[in-house]
Amino acid sequence: MTGVPILSILLAVPMLGAVACLLVPAGAARWIALGATLLDLLLGILLWSQYQIGGPQWQFVEYSRAFGPFAWALGIDGIALMLIMLSLFLMPICILASWESVTRRVPEYMAAFLAMETMMLGVFMAQDIFLFYIFFEAGLIPMYLIIGIWGGAERIYASYKFFLYTLLGSVLMLIAMLWMVNFTGGDTYIPHLLATDFPRQAQTWLWLAFFASFAVKMPMWPVHTWLPDAHVQAPTAGSVILAGVLLKLGGYGFVRFSLPMFPEASAQLVWIVFGLSLVAIVYTSLVALVQRDMKKLIAYSSVAHMAFVTIGIFTFNRQGIEGALVVMLSHGLVSGALFLCVGVIYDRLHTREIDRYGGLSNNMPAYAVLFLLFTMASVGLPGTGGFVGEFLALIGSYRASSLVAFVATTGIILGAAYMLYLYWRVAYGTSRNADAAAMPDLTLRELVSLGSIAAVVLWMGVYPESFLAPMRQDVGLLLARVERAAPPGDAALVRSAHAAPAPAEGAHH
Fold it and tell me: Looking at 248-402, which runs of residues are DSSP E strands?
């Protein structure tokens, strides 16, 4: 594959598909969107097969100065590869989920999804800091349109709230980026910036500026309030991609920028991350327990799950960071699948009120089985991807602080409470109304969508090495960078990160 700009091709396919969708009627637009996303998924599988585990840190690198001051600089490491695969896998499922439920302005809807795919992939591929920023912010626009045009009754309020929250946080990040580029004499190349030692006083302000953007994207408490509104109002596929990929951009930002570029500030300010994350785990889990709307319950559970990611990343040890990355992947699949499960019954009964359902295991057995699998994966049942990630993240957090690990563990107990309570009310007992009792089971299209996610969730739970191996070297490089840069008196966390020898897990620098 030498010489083939596969990353540019991966970005071009959905963008060309988006243009094509706008030129054809609704029926053809659906097929073009599905074809473009499936072609991109096949290219992604080819990319994964060609990726050299243990090879150079940055692979498939493309660099061009064709755009004047902006460099077209693309390249991926193992962490970016896994998040790209998550995005590519979920996109065809989103198109299938919208096949019958979206009937208004179908070509524009499909074009918005394909444009968003390009922007999401661009975030994970970009190696120029301003190119990263453009992709990071441009992804807001299609999502804003998807919520605002095809959303629920209060879609305008939700879309504006989503847009303003995420945009305002990113303004501070842009100012920090301009300062960094000025400090390095105009160097915008991310691998060079990763190797730059920024002044200790400046690191704190830079870290806080990036934190403002990534915390909103995650979203962390207390800037999470846009998420339940956006989820409730978004169409089903919008919720899938919002929970599946867009929330992961914040976690990716912490791993790519905050830790390696500002390691001293990360060690100093880790208490902010731990404090906010622990509040999020307990508070949003309790809020989820009392929800009557299925989408709102799953939205609040997403905030709690993403708090495990922030805790894991800032433990400064291998188990914590690898656990956080696996939680990102498994949560992307499981929360996406749970939103699809809500969409399946919403399409039939047009309500998300939990009290309107009950006894669905009687008339929808296939649906009940798959819904149960995803419920258990969300809880962290061994054998599913959720268990692997949360277990590693908790081990890492225990090595960093036993108190943090103890409070975080309550989130798993509360998570079991609200997810099993939800499942019990929807699937068991007797039907509360005749409409719910008469709903047909999954169609072939729905079965393919949910079944394919179920297969990957079980694969991740049974053989997580497939997903950990490409990322292991990059986690090692990240830890080496943090350990080298953080001053010895600054954080016992960093010193203790390597106190207990990690198991021999393949080659890393």
Answer: none
